């Protein structure tokens, strides 16, 4: 099982900040190569050197499905239509509003 740091409240990577039924992804932060459920968890428990994933590295695995523990590339995640391509778990479409905290878009 991949370790997810921060204020995680369950095994599906929900945290104290985002905990709806669909909040089941964690993101590997580019700056520290560590998974966190959200930008707030990274701010509270991360490296303190926030950096977003550059577009030329979107082929790297950096998104974790909390339901099946599959690591997705950023590209796979962005084209997934808010569903895990492995287990079909629904992801929160509202996360697109925060994508700029994680990815150079």
Task: Describe the protein in words.
By secondary structure, this protein is α+β, with helices and mostly antiparallel strands. It has one domain. Strands 2-1-3-4 form a 4-stranded antiparallel beta sheet. Strand 1 and strand 2 form a beta hairpin. It is globular. The model has no long low-confidence stretch (mean pLDDT 97). One of its GO terms (molecular function) is zinc ion binding. InterPro entries: Mito_Tim_assembly_helper, UCP017292, Znf_CHY, Znf_CHY_sf. Keywords: Metal-binding, Zinc, Zinc-finger.
What structural keywords apply?
single chain, 105 residues, alpha+beta, 4-stranded antiparallel sheet, 11% helix
> Pairing-aware structural class of the strands and helices?
alpha+beta
Query: Can you tell me the overall shape?
Result: globular
- Which bin fits the share of residues in helices? 10-25%
- Uncertain segments are none
N- to C-terminal distance? 29 Å
Q: Main beta sheet, described?
A: 4 strands, antiparallel
Count structural domains.
1
What's the total number of strands? 4
Assess the beta-strand content as a share of residues.
Answer: 15-25%
Strand order of the largest sheet: 2-1-3-4
Mean pLDDT: 97
Number of helices: 2
Order of helices and strands: EEHEEH
Radius of gyration: 12 Å
GO molecular function: zinc ion binding
Keywords: Metal-binding, Zinc, Zinc-finger
Protein name: Putative CHY-type Zn-finger protein
Domain CHY-type: 8-89
Kindly summarize this structure in a few lines.
Helix content is 11%, strand content 15%. The chain has 105 residues and is of the alpha+beta class. A 4-stranded antiparallel beta sheet has the order 2-1-3-4.
């Amino acid at each position: 099982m991949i370790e997810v740091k921060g204020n995680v409240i369950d095994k599906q990577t929900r945290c104290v900040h985002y905990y709806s039924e669909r909040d089941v992804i964690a993101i590997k932060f580019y700056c520290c190569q560590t998974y966190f459920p959200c930008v707030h968890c990274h701010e509270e428990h991360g490296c303190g050197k926030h950096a977003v994933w550059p577009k030329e590295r979107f082929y790297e695995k950096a998104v974790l499905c909390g339901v099946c523990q599959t690591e997705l590339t950023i590209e796979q995640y962005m084209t997934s239509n808010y569903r895990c391509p492995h287990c079909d778990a629904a992801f929160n479409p509202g996360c697109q509003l925060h994508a700029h905290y994680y990815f150079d878009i």
